[in-house]
Amino acid sequence: PKTHNHEFIVQATKVKRLCKTHNSITVNGQFPGPTINVKNGDTLVVKVVNKARYNITIHWHGIRQMRTGWADGPAYVTQCPIRPGHSYTYRFTIDGQEGTLWWHAHSSWLRATVYGALIIYPREGTSYPFAKPQRETPLLLGEWWDANPVDVINEARRTGAAPNISDAYTINGQPGDLYNCSSKGTTIVPVAAGETILLRVVNSALNQDLFFTVANHKLTVVAADASYIKPTTTSVILLGPGQTTDVLITADQPVGRYYIAARAYASAQGAPFDNTTTTAILEYKGSPCRTCSGQSLQSPVLPNLPAYNDTTTATAFTTSLRNYKKAPVPTEIDEDLFFTVGLGLMPCPRRFKKSRCQGPNGTRFTASMNNHSFVLPSSWSLLQAQQQGIPGVFTTDFPAVPPLKFDYTGNVSRALWNPVPGTKLYKMKYGSRVQVVLQGTSIQTADNHPIHLHGYDFFILAEGFGNFDASKDTSKFNLVDPPLRNTVGVPVGGWAVIRFVADNPGVWLMHCHLDAHITWGLAMAFIVENGVGKLQSVEPPPADLPKC
Ligand code: C2O
């Protein structure tokens, strides 16, 4: 195994998009940021130098971080942010995962421009469980704001209203041909006739589930969230923010150009969202020239994408994924948890001016799990407080089941609209076998909630609509070959059930990966206590761990 050293300089950089030049925060002047290539078993050492004017942290999304929680990255959870002018070195080993993950800023809305791919090749001396493709490329789907994304969320925080929606979707940072002033930069994916190409698709968007497809080509899914999937062929895939999907395509069409395209999946309930389509181009070698003068421009073939509210297609895809091999799903459960996930509206506090309550009917948006709206600490990270025994930073009374039982997907009790703010964690013993039923509630929701767990992959046993009912829904559990993922889309008006073994000590955030929702408090955190001895305990903190 190798050790890879990188330096990430976080700095403001001029980025031209949608006809204007912006001063965007980037890593090493690149947007999207650098792609990191490693092998399963390698160690990664990344020194992050903050030359921007914001506090920042970097999260290695999906990396297990076995006993190295200090390198996980969520601000105020596993570390205090890196202040302007300071640096911090993330050091961790890739242990068992193969496929595509990614890294992103995990403070404020900086991840709008601070993100990149993290590609994990098979362990030295081993190969893919599918025929090696002739080519491959990461395709990062993103969201672009003309305004400064940090201003967008700060404004929403001030007013209590929903943040402005983005101005474009992007593929590898480029909106593509269908947006103004964007044709020149469109991402081109070259291929030769007859070749197979591996597309490593990442949904890095802040607030949107996305459908993804390639015109006239079949997609064969082979991995998701850096875990292999039984190859399955489809014409369209769906990714929630945070999720990755590796697909093979074969260039078996007439020589030419074909659009690679993505656009929103937003269910039928109609919260405002961007309904535009981002494109890249799959370009066969020998295609007639595209932009040279004197040639008639041959436009690429546009694909069919499902309608934004096509829940049937979305569900058919997510439930079709099977683990590549028989999965070691725990069959006994020590922690049987039931968490509601949902939005809410809080009445305008008396002391607030009207201008601070611009949510529906003079309210403010909020969000919660089990009726608690998560508040991050500000003077210590949760992991420091837990490891060093600093009192008063959090409590450990996050409820295992909802404090109020009700018809979750029906007419929701008013009490749920106004959850209790707090920093409540749920404590578990090392090695506990955990099941979490994630139950969506129906308040103000138009999107799946992509629930992401730090520090773990989990098996997705089942998902469904309505209220989860143990007496009949347990029969739907796949205990044989469920996919192993780090982010699950809890369906609008429905539920999903996950299982994992709590074998990684530390403090681990679980949250909705829609940044609007985490901002409103749709999060909680687990404490997994140290086990016996060094190999079951969190490593000591690095000397350069930032201070708050
Ligand atoms: Cu990809 Cu907590 O995030």
From TrEMBL:
Which GO cellular component terms are attached?
apoplast
Its UniProt entry gives the catalysed reaction(s) as:
4 hydroquinone + O2 = 4 benzosemiquinone + 2 H2O
The record's PROSITE patterns line, in alphabetical order, gives: MULTICOPPER_OXIDASE1, MULTICOPPER_OXIDASE2
Give the enzyme class. oxidoreductase
Pfam families in the record: Cu-oxidase, Cu-oxidase_2, Cu-oxidase_3
- Identify the residues that the record assigns to the Plastocyanin-like domain, covering every copy: 10-124, 136-287, 398-530
InterPro entries noted in UniProt:
Cu-oxidase-like_N, Cu-oxidase_2nd, Cu-oxidase_C, Cu-oxidase_fam, Cu_oxidase_CS, Cu_oxidase_Cu_BS, Cupredoxin, CuRO_1_LCC
Q: Its domain of life?
A: Eukaryota
Q: What is this protein called?
A: Laccase
From the broadest rank down, the organism's phylogenetic lineage runs: Eukaryota, Viridiplantae, Streptophyta, Embryophyta, Tracheophyta
